[in-house]
Amino acid sequence: MFGRNGIWACAVAMVVAAAVSGSGAAGGDPAPAGKELVVLGDSFTANKWDFLSEEVKCVHSETSWPAQLVQLMRTDDYLDASCPGASIDTPPGYTLAMEARKADKAGAFGPNTKLVTLQIGLNDRWGATDMIMWWSLQRCIFDLIDGCGPEAAEQGRMTDYRGVSGAAFAQRISNVVTYIKYYAPNARIVLVGYPELFPSGQDSVCISLFGVAPFIQPRGRAAIEYLDRIDRAQREAAGLLGIDFLDTRTPTLGHGLCSADPWLNGVLDYRTDIGGLPFHPSAHGDAVVANAVYERYGR
Question: For residue 294, which of 72, 122, 138, 230 is within the disulfide window of CB 3.0 to 4.6 Å?
Answer without folding.
Answer: 72
